[in-house]
Amino acid sequence: MHPELVPDARRAAGWTLLVDGVPQSYVDLADPTYLEFEYVRRLASVVDAVAPAGVPLRVLHLGGGALTLPRYVAATRPGSRQRVFEHDAALAALVHRDLPLPADADVRVDITDARAGVTAGGQRYDLVLGDVYRGAQMPRSVASLEFATLVADLVAPAGCYALNVADLPPLAFSRRQAATLRRAFADVGVLAEPGMLRGRRYGNVVLVAVAAPDGLPVNRLVAAANRDPFPGRLLHGPSLDRFIGGARPVTDDVAQDSPKPPPPLLT
Fold first, then answer.
1. Once rounded to an integer, what is the mean pLDDT over residues 83-112?
2. Residue 205 belongs to a domain with what CATH number?
3. In percent, how much of the chain has pLDDT > 90?
4. Residue 169 falls within a domain, yes or no?
5. Phi (first) and psi of residue 123, to 5 degrees
6. Residue 258 lies inside a defined structural domain of this protein
7. Per-residue model confidence (pLDDT) at position 20
8. 247 to each of 66, 143, 239, how far by Cα in Å?
9. What is the pLDDT of residue 136?
């Protein structure tokens, strides 16, 4: 894979990370709370909702990219302790050299595959953020019930797992992922732009799961989603039942990579 950093002509401190020509991350070094990509703002809305504002969190990031969300957490929740599993050593070195983290950010980056890092276990986290991609696709190794169960073992009793999924209409992959998380966690929600949920376009869906029954902070998630320039909708309870429909959880033996994006998005 070939990582590349491209400056943003609109923002003096803005940079886009491309991997094999596909945009992966955006960072504004002068303002870590500026989030260019819609799906990153959805994940950040989960960061905002899981605990009262400013409360430090223990956070595990599966997939590092340009460390956009670790920067956001460090800025909005000072004192947070964060760990990142990033499989691409060359990408991590590029980001470390050209987009250094703030000196006060407590972020440890481990060069390891997400599945291997999660399998190794360790401490528990208040929040696990999953954004693992090989180019433009989420690999099957992080899309199974076995993987979700491993993640559940790392989530604190009151903690949360949020997963970014890129999908095509009719969102069959997202529906299977929601069914899979429901098997591993006690309470699950799906967060996305309403047009995306109606299957109108390729885009991103964020799944949110917690260990405690009825533990999802529904009101805070809805409030955070509504603050976005493109307000999101949360599917939970009966609306999530309808979204999942007949989709079944996927196990390692049948798991697949997420769909490839339409060709125009890759050119």
1. 96
2. 3.40.50.150
3. 91
4. yes
5. -70, 170
6. yes
7. 82
8. 34, 14, 14
9. 84
Residue 46 to residues 18, 160, 236, Cα–Cα distance (Å): 25, 9, 15
Residues 6+ apart with CB under 8 A from 3: 17, 18, 19, 24, 88, 90, 91, 94
Domain around 111: 37-266
CB 197 within 8 A of CB 243: yes
Kindly give the residue spans of alpha helices, DSSP state H, lying in the chain: 38-49, 68-76, 89-98, 114-119, 145-154, 172-184, 194-197, 218-226, 238-244
d(CA 253, CA 247): 16
Return the axis-axis angle of helices 38-49 and 218-226, rounded to nearest 10°: 140
Question: In the predicted model, is pLDDT for residue 263 greater than 80?
Answer: no
**CA 36, CA 1: separation in Å to the nearest integer?**
23
Q: How many domains does the chain have?
A: 1
Judge whether 17 lies within some domain: no
Closest CA to 219 of 199, 189, 243: 189
Residue 265 has pLDDT above 60, yes or no: no
- In this structure, is residue 29 part of a structural domain? no
The answer to whether 202 touches 168, Cβ cutoff 8 Å, is yes
Determine the Cα–Cα distance for residues 249 and 197; give it in Å rounded to an integer.
Answer: 19
